[in-house]
Amino acid sequence: MNIVLTRHAKSSWDNLNLTDHDRPLNRRGREDAELVAKYLATYEYTYKTILCSTSKRTSETLEIFLNYIHKVDQINYLSNLYHASAETIRKEITTLDTDGTYMLLGHNPGIEDFLRNLHKDTSLKVPTCSIALLSNQNNYLRLNKLITPKELKSQ
Fold first, then answer.
1. Based on the structure, what is the number of domains in the chain?
2. What's the angle, vertex CA 59, arms to CA 153 and CA 70, rounded to 5?
3. What CATH number should be reported for the domain holding residue 70?
4. In a designed cystine with 45, which of 23, 24, 101, 119 is the match (CB 3.0 to 4.6 A)?
5. Domain interval for residue 75
């Protein structure tokens, strides 16, 4: 099993009347999402399921990613992923089949906490629009690679 754990791209604070849930991406967020999506497309994954928080910024991040994704069998928008804890993320991952490739789009601090627990590294940082490539081998979930927009821009 492969999992692409994704933190949403940078959101806009231009309209302070919007709820946190309804904040869209800003220009940098859209640019970063496109950059990361192009990188991710090189893996040519076929996703069995994509799990996405219901927030505007995660759904907009996913919309940009879908322009570059090879194939998706199913997309589920889940309200429990909106500011989900590391434990909620773990529970969602354990519901997935043990084969195939999946994506989960969510928020910090849950994603960062989940990866810190997994990788046993409390200094690990997950900036906006970062992707963590995880694999499950012999019932052991492993962080293979963490990719940030800043890293991709420097290449």
1. 1
2. 65
3. 3.40.50.1240
4. 101
5. 2-12+19-126
